[in-house]
Amino acid sequence: MLDDAGLQALREAARFSPDNLPLRRHLADQLLTKGYLAEAEAEYRAALMLAPQDPDITTGLAEAFTRQSAYGAALSILEPHLARAGYPPRMGVIAARALLGEGETAGAARRYHEAVSRDPSVAAPDLAARLAAPPQPVTAPPSPPREADSEVERSRFTFADVAGMEAVKETLRLKLLLPVQQPELFAAFGKRAGGGVLLYGPPGAGKTHLARAAAGELGAAFVSVGLADILDMYIGSSERNLRAVFEMARRNRPCVLFFDEVDALAARRSDMRQAHNRQIVNQFLAELDGVDDGANEGVLVLAATNAPWYVDVAFRRPGRFDQLVFVPPPDPAARAAILRIMCRDKPLAEMDFDAVARITDSFTGADLKGVVDRAVEAKLQQSISAGRMIPLVTADLVTAVGQVRPTAVREWLTTARNYVLHANESGGWDELMPWIKRI
Ligand code: ADP
């Protein structure tokens, strides 16, 4: 590695021959290695102008972004390359770091293990330690059980990062957070902490984000489990995996244990392995009830589903998922707030979030993320061509809105109507009714 004098000489040389690509690239690599991240970023950008498609320069720039916590920027320049087969394995590792920074652990693990399987020399033990074990092929023997890609996360989000949804947050606060934050008060009224909350709503409305934020708000660990993954595993190990994730949550209390796609349990009941699935449902319920009294003390179970009508009634008994909470698509004020949150670490000039919110009716949080990512990507390309940073303005978001197709909130509400309109005797779907009547 160069000492600082060597680096200085390299800087001078690059200044004299600005079009010497290998030289600029070498300078950028050295700056990155020595941790001059902003300067490395500028050099890589300059090099990219000389060789716009170069995967190694792109990887260098992405690493500079990632090490400055600009994960979204890193991912948006990597994406076009990652979509092609044969991208450099080192790029996969940087993408994994950026995905992990964005909280997308499962995607990060997939990228990382794929990269290392192609080139073991890119292995990064620190990253590997933060990621789950590599997925085993289905033909592998069922033992030892893998923990279903789950890992213990520390959420960097709190309710302040969740726009709108005031009523939903209040419910969660009362149900999940206050008993832990103020146990004396709850004890005085003879209430125990426990039981779960089932979040339901259209895909992309923010259920996972909300669960993660609840963990952050509480200062609790966060364990997220895709139930479909557990069920797809080798027969016989699903039960062990279920047990393993509950155990992991108990070891890390206080902990929010989050089950995504909880309807997968019910949806499979009609398939061939019916008896087996019945067994898994029972096991799930037993774990939820706590094998012995107090086993789940300090473990807050949240589950999410896009199809609550499939969820087994047995789940809904007191002490289990006795509370159904609707996570609605965001209204205009919430959309403006979501956009504001998503753009807060981006360079902005004139920006009218309310105007963008008005033209994004029926966009979910996930759709808005798509809009922002697209606008940022376009801006980054422009900035690279111009050789200087050009901030985002309202028109950029408006253009991106025209290019993103919102997921079908309307379709979801239509399906919901078919299921619940004639099945609301108990009032369980009350929160959903005003939305359904609107379509
Ligand atoms: P779901 O679990 O309901 O399918 P997600 O929680 O995965 O949806 O939401 C998708 C993305 O949309 C999240 O990563 C988050 O960035 C964003 N998002 C959704 N709702 C909100 C919100 N209310 N505030 C901030 N971001 C949101």
From TrEMBL:
Ranges where the record places region Disordered: 133-152
InterPro entries linked to this entry: AAA+_ATPase, AAA_ATPase_domain, AAA_lid_3, ATPase_AAA_core, ATPase_AAA_CS, P-loop_NTPase, TPR-like_helical_dom_sf
Residue span(s) of domain AAA+ ATPase: 193-331
Keyword Nucleotide-binding: yes
Comp. bias intervals (Pro residues): 134-145
Keywords on record: ATP-binding, Nucleotide-binding
PANTHER family found in the cross-reference section: AAA-FAMILY ATPASE, NUCLEAR VALOSIN-CONTAINING PROTEIN-LIKE
Name of this chain's protein: AAA family ATPase
Taxonomic source organism: Streptosporangium jomthongense
